[in-house]
Amino acid sequence: MDFASLAVQLNAGTIVPEAIVLITLMTVVVSDLIIGRQASAQWTPYIAIAGLLASVVALFYQWDVANPISFIGEFNGDALSVVFRGIIALSAATTILMSIRYVIQSGTSLAEFITILLTATLGGMFLSGSDELVAVYVSLETLSISSYLLTGYTKRDPRSNEAALKYLLIGASSSAIFLYGASLLYGLSGGETRLSTISASIASAGLAQSIGLVIALVFAIAGIAFKIAAVPFHQWTPDVYEGSPTPVVAFLSVGSKAAGFALAIRLLVTAFPLVSEQWQLVMTTLAILSMVLGNVVALAQTSMKRLLAYSSIGQAGFVMIGLILGTDAGYSSMVFYLMVYLFMNLGAFTCIILFTLRTGTDQISEYAGLYQKDPLLTLALSVCLLSLGGIPPLAGFFGKLYLFWAGWQAGAYPLVILGLVTSVISIYYYIRVVKMMVVKEPQEMSDSVKNYPPTDWTLPGMRPLQVGLVSALIATSLAGIFSNPLFTLANDSVLKTPMLQQALGRSKAPIAKQMAPTISQQLSLQITEVSTKKAVSLPKSMVHS
């Protein structure tokens, strides 16, 4: 094989965004070694953010690439992977913005923190496009091991050490379970490792109904459920969220979760179409448990980080509805919700970081009367929490509307009704925090708010935190009102992904297939009516042909 043929088969241009992140990572490491910790802390964060934004720009130019398959089938840079890689890169960039002051105040090395975070980002981006079992596992472990290190990064904090140990032990177990499921797939398919050929090989061998395939499915779902924090694989979430550095929790709640859902779509749709009814049943069970437990247990929480931990479990249950439906609108609603979840969840964690830096606590009761001392922080946190609860016209409302509407039209009535009920429950505990900040009288202020220090944005790392706070506030407010571009992007990412279109073409649920065109048409009509006063209407590209 000559060099030209090898270059064509490798098609390395599809991983240019990951290459940019890798170069940025190496630049941060080398600069920290050469100029020292103090000097590098002043500009390495901005190099990392610039590299991540450059990676997002490179992803934009890969949207309509003619041949997305690269490295002899190991990586698939299709439209769906482009969106998920963009979500992960943007979540990492926002995490760096909010972590500068936090890491400096903790007395640890900022460059090392950014290096590990970029490594986790690299693993998540590769995981979103991996189309081969070995590539999937290596990417998954790159993301997981980096997450363990980030969780225990504040070594002087016993809670961080405890969280890292719990995360490591449970994560290692889930990784071993997932690997065993992958090895079963490898054996049943006769030595195939490419996801796109595993199913055909199993079918040709007459093993479509074998118990081994079901066991492989269960083990694979266990590994995925751990990554997305779905019940009953959620045990690590509350303790890790409470004990980890808050910027790390922010990245885990968005970047790591998005990578997990990208893996779920690609693995279940491509490698397990022969048992699609079984995995939809299992995922339905996990979604129901996650929505109920996550939102109900969140009612009893007294810590903001633990509240958002259980909230993220419930949010995972909502997103899983789109995966279960197996329709165009189902996948599109899933992608759209993850895009708006990026803004509102990272915005909420930015507010928590700012409050913690000034008061040293994250107890909900300590937020009492905050609006009298810090109106900007109160406004931003209120908007983000109300958006997570699904209050119109914020971004979270349209995300849940799209998910529930797609589920209703596909006939998943119990899931949609349960989702609506648990959403109402979630609104209660979100509004409880808003009420704590806004309604309390001056004499009812908490001790932390009474001693609240004056805002000083001139301290190192405070300006980036302010930029992140304002950006999250604006994005969460406007992403719902002007949601057309995000709707279009989510729909196009599904329509332009051959893997999903092939899966929809071979679907054994003709009713769902017939209803799929109607979903987006009726959704388009409904949202146009809701948004008429805001001059918002969905484009024709929302209507599936």
TrEMBL record:
<dbReference type="InterPro" id="IPR001750">
    <property type="entry name" value="ND/Mrp_TM"/>
</dbReference>
<dbReference type="Pfam" id="PF19530">
    <property type="entry name" value="Ndh2_N"/>
</dbReference>
<feature type="transmembrane region" description="Helical">
    <location>
        <begin position="83"/>
        <end position="103"/>
    </location>
</feature>
<keyword id="KW-1278">Translocase</keyword>
<comment type="function">
    <text>NDH-1 shuttles electrons from NAD(P)H, via FMN and iron-sulfur (Fe-S) centers, to quinones in the respiratory chain. The immediate electron acceptor for the enzyme in this species is believed to be plastoquinone. Couples the redox reaction to proton translocation (for every two electrons transferred, four hydrogen ions are translocated across the cytoplasmic membrane), and thus conserves the redox energy in a proton gradient.</text>
</comment>
<feature type="transmembrane region" description="Helical">
    <location>
        <begin position="43"/>
        <end position="63"/>
    </location>
</feature>
<feature type="domain" description="NAD(P)H-quinone oxidoreductase subunit 2 N-terminal">
    <location>
        <begin position="11"/>
        <end position="100"/>
    </location>
</feature>
<feature type="transmembrane region" description="Helical">
    <location>
        <begin position="134"/>
        <end position="153"/>
    </location>
</feature>
<keyword id="KW-1133">Transmembrane helix</keyword>
<dbReference type="GO" id="GO:0012505">
    <property type="term" value="C:endomembrane system"/>
</dbReference>
<keyword id="KW-0874">Quinone</keyword>
<comment type="similarity">
    <text>Belongs to the complex I subunit 2 family.</text>
</comment>
<feature type="domain" description="NADH:quinone oxidoreductase/Mrp antiporter transmembrane">
    <location>
        <begin position="130"/>
        <end position="426"/>
    </location>
</feature>
<dbReference type="GO" id="GO:0042773">
    <property type="term" value="P:ATP synthesis coupled electron transport"/>
</dbReference>
<dbReference type="InterPro" id="IPR010096">
    <property type="entry name" value="NADH-Q_OxRdtase_suN/2"/>
</dbReference>
<comment type="subunit">
    <text>NDH-1 can be composed of about 15 different subunits; different subcomplexes with different compositions have been identified which probably have different functions.</text>
</comment>
<feature type="transmembrane region" description="Helical">
    <location>
        <begin position="376"/>
        <end position="398"/>
    </location>
</feature>
<comment type="function">
    <text>NDH-1 shuttles electrons from an unknown electron donor, via FMN and iron-sulfur (Fe-S) centers, to quinones in the respiratory and/or the photosynthetic chain. The immediate electron acceptor for the enzyme in this species is believed to be plastoquinone. Couples the redox reaction to proton translocation, and thus conserves the redox energy in a proton gradient. Cyanobacterial NDH-1 also plays a role in inorganic carbon-concentration.</text>
</comment>
<feature type="transmembrane region" description="Helical">
    <location>
        <begin position="247"/>
        <end position="269"/>
    </location>
</feature>
<dbReference type="GO" id="GO:0019684">
    <property type="term" value="P:photosynthesis, light reaction"/>
</dbReference>
<feature type="transmembrane region" description="Helical">
    <location>
        <begin position="281"/>
        <end position="300"/>
    </location>
</feature>
<keyword id="KW-0520">NAD</keyword>
<feature type="transmembrane region" description="Helical">
    <location>
        <begin position="15"/>
        <end position="36"/>
    </location>
</feature>
<keyword id="KW-0812">Transmembrane</keyword>
<keyword id="KW-0813">Transport</keyword>
<dbReference type="GO" id="GO:0016655">
    <property type="term" value="F:oxidoreductase activity, acting on NAD(P)H, quinone or similar compound as acceptor"/>
</dbReference>
<keyword id="KW-0521">NADP</keyword>
<feature type="transmembrane region" description="Helical">
    <location>
        <begin position="110"/>
        <end position="128"/>
    </location>
</feature>
<feature type="transmembrane region" description="Helical">
    <location>
        <begin position="410"/>
        <end position="431"/>
    </location>
</feature>
<feature type="transmembrane region" description="Helical">
    <location>
        <begin position="331"/>
        <end position="355"/>
    </location>
</feature>
<keyword id="KW-0618">Plastoquinone</keyword>
<feature type="transmembrane region" description="Helical">
    <location>
        <begin position="307"/>
        <end position="325"/>
    </location>
</feature>
<dbReference type="Pfam" id="PF00361">
    <property type="entry name" value="Proton_antipo_M"/>
</dbReference>
<feature type="transmembrane region" description="Helical">
    <location>
        <begin position="206"/>
        <end position="226"/>
    </location>
</feature>
<dbReference type="GO" id="GO:0008137">
    <property type="term" value="F:NADH dehydrogenase (ubiquinone) activity"/>
</dbReference>
<protein>
    <recommendedName>
        <fullName>NAD(P)H-quinone oxidoreductase subunit 2</fullName>
        <ecNumber>7.1.1.-</ecNumber>
    </recommendedName>
</protein>
<feature type="transmembrane region" description="Helical">
    <location>
        <begin position="165"/>
        <end position="186"/>
    </location>
</feature>
<dbReference type="GO" id="GO:0048038">
    <property type="term" value="F:quinone binding"/>
</dbReference>
<dbReference type="InterPro" id="IPR045693">
    <property type="entry name" value="Ndh2_N"/>
</dbReference>
<keyword id="KW-0793">Thylakoid</keyword>
<keyword id="KW-0472">Membrane</keyword>
<dbReference type="GO" id="GO:0031676">
    <property type="term" value="C:plasma membrane-derived thylakoid membrane"/>
</dbReference>
